[in-house]
Design brief:
Two copies of one chain form a homodimer.
Chain A: H1 11-33, H2 41-70, H3 77-111, H4 122-152
Helix pairs in contact in A: 1-2, 1-4, 2-3, 3-4
Chain lengths: 153, 153
Amino acid sequence: MKKLFGSPGKVSGLALRIGQCCFAAAAIGVMLSAHGFFNATAFCYLIASMGLQVVWSFGLACLDLHALRSKRSLQNPILVSLFVVGDWVTSTLSLAAACSSAGVTVLYSKDLNYCRPMNLPCSKFQIAVAFAFISWFLLAVSSIVMFRLLGAV
Amino acid sequence: MKKLFGSPGKVSGLALRIGQCCFAAAAIGVMLSAHGFFNATAFCYLIASMGLQVVWSFGLACLDLHALRSKRSLQNPILVSLFVVGDWVTSTLSLAAACSSAGVTVLYSKDLNYCRPMNLPCSKFQIAVAFAFISWFLLAVSSIVMFRLLGAV
Protein backbone atom coordinates (compact mmCIF):
# COMPACT_ATOMS: atom_id res chain seq x y z
CA MET A 1 0.00 0.00 0.00
CA LYS A 2 1.65 3.19 -1.18
CA LYS A 3 1.62 6.29 1.00
CA LEU A 4 1.87 9.11 -1.52
CA PHE A 5 1.65 12.82 -0.73
CA GLY A 6 -2.00 13.80 -0.83
CA SER A 7 -3.45 10.29 -0.74
CA PRO A 8 -6.78 9.81 1.08
CA GLY A 9 -6.54 9.29 4.83
CA LYS A 10 -3.39 11.42 5.16
CA VAL A 11 -2.99 14.94 6.57
CA SER A 12 -1.69 16.20 3.20
CA GLY A 13 -4.76 14.74 1.47
CA LEU A 14 -7.05 16.43 3.97
CA ALA A 15 -5.21 19.76 3.49
CA LEU A 16 -5.62 19.51 -0.31
CA ARG A 17 -9.36 18.83 0.04
CA ILE A 18 -9.85 21.73 2.46
CA GLY A 19 -7.90 24.02 0.12
CA GLN A 20 -10.06 22.99 -2.87
CA CYS A 21 -13.23 23.51 -0.87
CA CYS A 22 -12.18 26.95 0.45
CA PHE A 23 -10.98 28.35 -2.87
CA ALA A 24 -14.10 27.08 -4.68
CA ALA A 25 -16.32 28.63 -1.99
CA ALA A 26 -14.34 31.89 -2.25
CA ALA A 27 -14.81 31.90 -6.05
CA ILE A 28 -18.59 31.48 -5.58
CA GLY A 29 -18.70 34.20 -2.91
CA VAL A 30 -16.75 36.76 -4.96
CA MET A 31 -18.78 35.99 -8.10
CA LEU A 32 -22.10 36.30 -6.26
CA SER A 33 -21.01 39.65 -4.80
CA ALA A 34 -20.27 41.03 -8.30
CA HIS A 35 -23.46 42.62 -9.65
CA GLY A 36 -24.40 41.73 -13.21
CA PHE A 37 -22.72 38.32 -13.21
CA PHE A 38 -25.98 36.65 -14.27
CA ASN A 39 -25.81 38.35 -17.67
CA ALA A 40 -23.06 35.94 -18.76
CA THR A 41 -23.82 32.22 -19.03
CA ALA A 42 -20.14 31.44 -18.34
CA PHE A 43 -20.26 33.09 -14.91
CA CYS A 44 -23.44 31.20 -13.95
CA TYR A 45 -21.74 27.97 -15.08
CA LEU A 46 -18.71 28.90 -12.93
CA ILE A 47 -20.95 29.15 -9.87
CA ALA A 48 -22.64 25.81 -10.64
CA SER A 49 -19.35 24.03 -11.26
CA MET A 50 -17.66 25.48 -8.17
CA GLY A 51 -20.75 24.48 -6.17
CA LEU A 52 -20.28 20.89 -7.33
CA GLN A 53 -16.60 21.10 -6.38
CA VAL A 54 -17.40 22.43 -2.90
CA VAL A 55 -19.79 19.51 -2.28
CA TRP A 56 -17.34 16.90 -3.64
CA SER A 57 -14.27 18.23 -1.81
CA PHE A 58 -16.16 18.80 1.44
CA GLY A 59 -17.46 15.22 1.35
CA LEU A 60 -13.99 13.82 0.77
CA ALA A 61 -12.51 16.09 3.47
CA CYS A 62 -15.02 14.67 5.96
CA LEU A 63 -14.13 11.14 4.86
CA ASP A 64 -10.40 11.91 5.26
CA LEU A 65 -10.99 13.37 8.72
CA HIS A 66 -12.96 10.29 9.74
CA ALA A 67 -10.20 8.01 8.42
CA LEU A 68 -7.54 10.03 10.25
CA ARG A 69 -9.42 9.97 13.55
CA SER A 70 -10.32 6.29 13.40
CA LYS A 71 -6.92 5.39 11.85
CA ARG A 72 -8.57 3.46 9.03
CA SER A 73 -7.18 3.03 5.56
CA LEU A 74 -9.27 4.32 2.65
CA GLN A 75 -7.10 2.64 0.04
CA ASN A 76 -9.24 -0.18 -1.26
CA PRO A 77 -9.63 -0.54 -5.04
CA ILE A 78 -13.37 0.23 -5.21
CA LEU A 79 -13.10 3.42 -3.14
CA VAL A 80 -10.02 4.63 -5.03
CA SER A 81 -11.73 3.96 -8.42
CA LEU A 82 -14.69 6.02 -7.23
CA PHE A 83 -12.36 8.84 -6.13
CA VAL A 84 -10.51 8.75 -9.48
CA VAL A 85 -13.67 9.01 -11.58
CA GLY A 86 -15.18 11.70 -9.36
CA ASP A 87 -11.95 13.71 -9.26
CA TRP A 88 -11.45 13.61 -13.02
CA VAL A 89 -15.03 14.56 -13.83
CA THR A 90 -15.03 17.38 -11.27
CA SER A 91 -11.63 18.71 -12.36
CA THR A 92 -12.58 18.69 -16.06
CA LEU A 93 -15.79 20.60 -15.27
CA SER A 94 -13.87 23.06 -13.05
CA LEU A 95 -11.23 23.71 -15.70
CA ALA A 96 -13.96 24.23 -18.29
CA ALA A 97 -15.77 26.69 -16.01
CA ALA A 98 -12.61 28.59 -15.07
CA CYS A 99 -11.50 28.87 -18.70
CA SER A 100 -14.85 29.96 -20.09
CA SER A 101 -15.13 32.59 -17.35
CA ALA A 102 -11.57 33.71 -18.02
CA GLY A 103 -12.41 34.06 -21.73
CA VAL A 104 -15.42 36.25 -20.95
CA THR A 105 -13.50 38.30 -18.35
CA VAL A 106 -10.66 39.01 -20.80
CA LEU A 107 -13.22 39.90 -23.47
CA TYR A 108 -14.93 42.39 -21.14
CA SER A 109 -11.81 43.95 -19.68
CA LYS A 110 -9.32 43.92 -22.58
CA ASP A 111 -11.02 43.30 -25.92
CA LEU A 112 -14.25 45.28 -25.58
CA ASN A 113 -13.20 47.65 -22.75
CA TYR A 114 -16.65 47.37 -21.19
CA CYS A 115 -15.68 47.61 -17.51
CA ARG A 116 -15.76 51.40 -17.13
CA PRO A 117 -18.59 52.36 -19.55
CA MET A 118 -20.93 49.49 -18.60
CA ASN A 119 -19.98 49.84 -14.89
CA LEU A 120 -19.03 46.15 -14.61
CA PRO A 121 -17.09 44.88 -11.54
CA CYS A 122 -14.31 43.38 -13.70
CA SER A 123 -11.80 43.15 -10.84
CA LYS A 124 -14.24 40.93 -8.94
CA PHE A 125 -14.66 38.74 -12.01
CA GLN A 126 -10.87 38.44 -12.25
CA ILE A 127 -10.51 37.52 -8.56
CA ALA A 128 -13.27 34.87 -8.87
CA VAL A 129 -11.57 33.37 -11.94
CA ALA A 130 -8.20 33.34 -10.15
CA PHE A 131 -9.74 31.51 -7.16
CA ALA A 132 -11.37 29.03 -9.55
CA PHE A 133 -8.01 28.32 -11.21
CA ILE A 134 -6.28 27.79 -7.84
CA SER A 135 -9.09 25.46 -6.79
CA TRP A 136 -8.78 23.54 -10.09
CA PHE A 137 -5.00 23.26 -9.65
CA LEU A 138 -5.38 21.71 -6.17
CA LEU A 139 -8.01 19.31 -7.52
CA ALA A 140 -5.70 18.37 -10.41
CA VAL A 141 -2.96 17.49 -7.89
CA SER A 142 -5.44 15.26 -6.04
CA SER A 143 -6.57 13.65 -9.31
CA ILE A 144 -3.03 12.76 -10.37
CA VAL A 145 -2.27 11.30 -6.92
CA MET A 146 -5.48 9.23 -7.10
CA PHE A 147 -4.63 7.97 -10.58
CA ARG A 148 -1.18 6.89 -9.38
CA LEU A 149 -2.74 5.23 -6.33
CA LEU A 150 -5.15 3.29 -8.56
CA GLY A 151 -2.15 1.64 -10.19
CA ALA A 152 -0.70 0.80 -6.77
CA VAL A 153 -3.73 -0.68 -4.93
CA MET B 1 3.48 -5.47 -23.46
CA LYS B 2 -0.19 -4.50 -23.55
CA LYS B 3 -1.95 -3.88 -26.85
CA LEU B 4 -4.66 -1.44 -25.92
CA PHE B 5 -7.03 0.25 -28.36
CA GLY B 6 -5.35 3.45 -29.56
CA SER B 7 -1.84 2.65 -28.32
CA PRO B 8 1.09 3.94 -30.38
CA GLY B 9 2.13 1.77 -33.29
CA LYS B 10 -1.40 0.44 -33.87
CA VAL B 11 -3.87 1.31 -36.63
CA SER B 12 -6.38 2.59 -34.04
CA GLY B 13 -3.68 4.85 -32.55
CA LEU B 14 -2.86 6.20 -36.00
CA ALA B 15 -6.56 6.82 -36.71
CA LEU B 16 -6.94 8.73 -33.43
CA ARG B 17 -3.93 10.93 -34.25
CA ILE B 18 -5.15 11.64 -37.78
CA GLY B 19 -8.60 12.51 -36.39
CA GLN B 20 -7.09 14.92 -33.82
CA CYS B 21 -4.95 16.55 -36.48
CA CYS B 22 -7.80 16.96 -38.99
CA PHE B 23 -10.34 18.36 -36.52
CA ALA B 24 -7.77 20.78 -35.06
CA ALA B 25 -6.84 21.94 -38.57
CA ALA B 26 -10.55 22.30 -39.43
CA ALA B 27 -11.08 24.41 -36.28
CA ILE B 28 -8.20 26.69 -37.31
CA GLY B 29 -9.50 26.94 -40.89
CA VAL B 30 -13.07 27.82 -39.89
CA MET B 31 -11.88 30.33 -37.28
CA LEU B 32 -9.51 32.03 -39.72
CA SER B 33 -12.31 32.31 -42.29
CA ALA B 34 -14.56 34.10 -39.77
CA HIS B 35 -13.92 37.83 -40.04
CA GLY B 36 -13.46 39.71 -36.78
CA PHE B 37 -12.11 36.74 -34.82
CA PHE B 38 -8.98 38.72 -33.86
CA ASN B 39 -11.07 41.06 -31.71
CA ALA B 40 -11.38 38.33 -29.05
CA THR B 41 -8.27 37.07 -27.25
CA ALA B 42 -9.98 33.72 -26.67
CA PHE B 43 -10.32 33.06 -30.42
CA CYS B 44 -6.65 33.93 -31.05
CA TYR B 45 -5.71 31.57 -28.22
CA LEU B 46 -7.89 28.85 -29.83
CA ILE B 47 -5.92 29.18 -33.06
CA ALA B 48 -2.57 29.03 -31.21
CA SER B 49 -3.59 26.03 -29.14
CA MET B 50 -5.07 24.14 -32.10
CA GLY B 51 -1.87 24.92 -34.02
CA LEU B 52 0.16 23.26 -31.26
CA GLN B 53 -2.20 20.28 -31.36
CA VAL B 54 -1.86 19.93 -35.15
CA VAL B 55 1.95 19.87 -34.82
CA TRP B 56 1.91 17.38 -31.94
CA SER B 57 -0.68 15.02 -33.46
CA PHE B 58 0.89 15.17 -36.91
CA GLY B 59 4.29 14.30 -35.46
CA LEU B 60 2.90 11.34 -33.56
CA ALA B 61 0.87 10.21 -36.59
CA CYS B 62 4.11 10.13 -38.62
CA LEU B 63 5.82 8.17 -35.85
CA ASP B 64 2.89 5.70 -35.73
CA LEU B 65 2.99 5.28 -39.51
CA HIS B 66 6.73 4.64 -39.39
CA ALA B 67 6.27 2.08 -36.59
CA LEU B 68 3.46 0.37 -38.52
CA ARG B 69 5.47 0.16 -41.73
CA SER B 70 8.67 -1.04 -40.09
CA LYS B 71 6.73 -3.22 -37.60
CA ARG B 72 8.59 -1.74 -34.64
CA SER B 73 7.20 -1.35 -31.14
CA LEU B 74 7.02 2.17 -29.72
CA GLN B 75 6.23 0.95 -26.22
CA ASN B 76 9.38 1.62 -24.27
CA PRO B 77 9.05 3.48 -20.93
CA ILE B 78 10.92 6.64 -21.99
CA LEU B 79 8.92 7.14 -25.18
CA VAL B 80 5.60 6.42 -23.43
CA SER B 81 6.47 8.87 -20.60
CA LEU B 82 7.20 11.53 -23.22
CA PHE B 83 3.88 10.80 -24.96
CA VAL B 84 1.98 10.96 -21.64
CA VAL B 85 3.41 14.35 -20.63
CA GLY B 86 2.95 15.79 -24.14
CA ASP B 87 -0.59 14.46 -24.45
CA TRP B 88 -1.67 15.79 -21.07
CA VAL B 89 -0.18 19.24 -21.59
CA THR B 90 -1.67 19.51 -25.10
CA SER B 91 -5.08 18.24 -24.04
CA THR B 92 -5.26 20.63 -21.07
CA LEU B 93 -4.36 23.57 -23.33
CA SER B 94 -6.90 22.43 -25.96
CA LEU B 95 -9.69 22.08 -23.41
CA ALA B 96 -8.84 25.52 -22.02
CA ALA B 97 -8.90 27.04 -25.52
CA ALA B 98 -12.14 25.31 -26.52
CA CYS B 99 -13.88 26.34 -23.28
CA SER B 100 -12.78 29.96 -23.34
CA SER B 101 -13.88 30.25 -26.97
CA ALA B 102 -17.17 28.57 -26.13
CA GLY B 103 -17.69 31.06 -23.29
CA VAL B 104 -17.12 34.01 -25.64
CA THR B 105 -19.29 32.47 -28.40
CA VAL B 106 -22.20 31.91 -26.00
CA LEU B 107 -21.74 35.46 -24.68
CA TYR B 108 -21.91 36.91 -28.21
CA SER B 109 -24.76 34.77 -29.51
CA LYS B 110 -27.02 34.32 -26.46
CA ASP B 111 -26.19 36.76 -23.69
CA LEU B 112 -25.40 39.96 -25.59
CA ASN B 113 -27.19 39.11 -28.88
CA TYR B 114 -24.38 40.75 -30.87
CA CYS B 115 -24.38 38.46 -33.91
CA ARG B 116 -26.98 40.29 -36.01
CA PRO B 117 -26.34 43.95 -35.00
CA MET B 118 -22.51 43.71 -35.02
CA ASN B 119 -22.55 41.49 -38.14
CA LEU B 120 -20.47 38.78 -36.47
CA PRO B 121 -20.16 35.31 -38.08
CA CYS B 122 -21.37 33.52 -34.92
CA SER B 123 -22.23 30.28 -36.72
CA LYS B 124 -18.59 30.01 -37.85
CA PHE B 125 -17.41 30.60 -34.28
CA GLN B 126 -19.76 27.82 -33.13
CA ILE B 127 -18.51 25.39 -35.78
CA ALA B 128 -14.88 26.14 -34.89
CA VAL B 129 -15.58 25.57 -31.19
CA ALA B 130 -17.38 22.30 -31.98
CA PHE B 131 -14.40 21.08 -34.02
CA ALA B 132 -12.06 22.09 -31.18
CA PHE B 133 -14.13 20.07 -28.69
CA ILE B 134 -14.14 16.99 -30.97
CA SER B 135 -10.37 17.32 -31.39
CA TRP B 136 -9.93 17.65 -27.61
CA PHE B 137 -12.12 14.57 -27.03
CA LEU B 138 -10.00 12.43 -29.38
CA LEU B 139 -6.84 13.71 -27.68
CA ALA B 140 -8.32 12.91 -24.26
CA VAL B 141 -8.92 9.31 -25.40
CA SER B 142 -5.27 9.07 -26.50
CA SER B 143 -4.10 10.58 -23.19
CA ILE B 144 -6.03 8.06 -21.10
CA VAL B 145 -4.72 5.17 -23.21
CA MET B 146 -1.14 6.49 -22.79
CA PHE B 147 -1.58 6.84 -19.04
CA ARG B 148 -2.80 3.24 -18.82
CA LEU B 149 0.11 2.10 -21.00
CA LEU B 150 2.58 3.87 -18.71
CA GLY B 151 1.40 1.62 -15.88
CA ALA B 152 1.82 -1.44 -18.10
CA VAL B 153 5.29 -0.90 -19.64
